[in-house]
Amino acid sequence: MQVLTKINILKIKKILQNKGYKIYKNQKTIPKTFENFFYITIVGIFFIGIFYITPLIIDFSKKKFNKNEIVLNNSSINFNRVLEGKEIQNNRNLKEDDEVDFKDLFTDVFEFDINEQDTVRLSASTLNQLFIDENYNLKDIRKNKLVKPIAIDLLPSEIKSIENTRKKKELFIQIVLPLILEENKKIKLERKTLFSILNKNSNSEAEKNWLKSKFKQYGVVNRDLPTLKIRMDEIPVSLAIAQAAKETGWGTSRFAQEGNALFGQWTYTGEGIKPAKSEKNENHKVMKFKILKASVRAYQRNLNTHKSYREFRKVRAIQRDVLGDLNSLELVNYLDKYAETGNEYIKILKKIIEQNKLTDFDDAKILPNSKKEKSLI
364 φ, ψ to 5°? Predict the structure, then answer.
């Protein structure tokens, strides 16, 4: 039967070939399930690629075609006039929907406008004993990274007469460290609030008003959120300490002692301290503050808003996005315009940071003043 079947098949094949038909062997086909799986995989990869690439294209187009205009201080003169409570010179060249009110940039600095009678200048020996009683020392801070919120309003006069350089530096750092950390914490909490607001689909009236006040405080017009996020950020602790040390001679300068000026900010008009060696044709003075903390806040606002430090802020934003943490030894390279000596000033700051191991304090945290504040950090 099998032979007969084979013959019949061969005859049929021969007959068909004679009539012009081509005969092929039956090939194995891919099962339908595998074919469906193949097509589904291809389609899935296609859509995943679309969802991945689309945000990149949108982000690129925004950066390329939607040019965000960064609004900056009118000038250093306006900065100083505002700190003195005087009228400012409006910038008539601003082509914005709403002109920046430069006074809003430093409104919160005037929160420290207290009577001198309310401040107490403690002696160096009293401060040392206070720190001992509070178990507040730099060795422990370098290890456990926790700082007690001890706010000192004025520098001790005796710091100038401390002959031991190491002890002088330690006392100075102990005084300014909590002040710097406190201001950084304030910015950190505000930044946290900002991102919380931005992540919501809709905002309350109170949140909108808060956002509006921050646009003013950081000199941002047209509600430019990318600019606000770049400006509203902390200053590395090691960098702030180094600049304060350089500008005050570790707390011994006349400007620091008489005017609580930790960062040597200049003013060309109004109240200030005239440098002793300045020329007759030089009319700048060093700005005075009622307490040390006001000087720290004004310094941070200056770096966060002034046009001279635009590159500083850009690099800081990159570090924040890529690394998460800030690198003071890298950021210091963009402060050449802070002093007339330029690059030499940068070298000095780096030396101060490295020799005194100030980066140990960059990740230090100031202890909260209340349970509510603790829950926010």
Answer: -75, 150
Please state whether 245 falls in left (phi above 0), alpha (psi between -120 and 50) or beta: alpha
Place of tokens 């000596």: 341
In this structure, which long-range contacts are made by residues 266-275, counting pairs with CB atoms below 8 Å and at least 24 apart in sequence?
266/76, 266/80, 267/80, 267/81, 267/83, 267/84, 268/76, 268/77, 268/80, 269/77, 269/80, 269/81, 269/84, 269/86, 270/80, 270/81, 270/84, 270/86, 271/84, 272/80
Residue 86 Rama label (left phi>0; alpha psi -120 to 50; beta): beta
CATH of 76-376, one of 3.30.420.150, 1.10.530.10, 3.30.450.20, 1.10.287.1700: 1.10.530.10
**pLDDT, tens digit, for every residue of 48-94?**
777 667 666 666 655 455 443 333 333 344 444 444 444 444 444 44
Both structure tokens of 126: 């009293």
Residue 62, SS3 per DSSP: helix
* Phi-psi group of 264: left, alpha or beta (phi > 0 → left; psi -120 to 50 → alpha; rest → beta): left
DSSP 323-343: TSS--HHHHGGG-TTSSTTTH
Distance CA 251, CA 240 (A): 13
Task: Read off the DSSP letter of residue 93.
Answer: T
> Mind listing the pLDDT tens digit for each residue in 167-224?
999 999 999 999 999 999 999 999 999 999 989 888 899 999 999 999 999 999 888 8
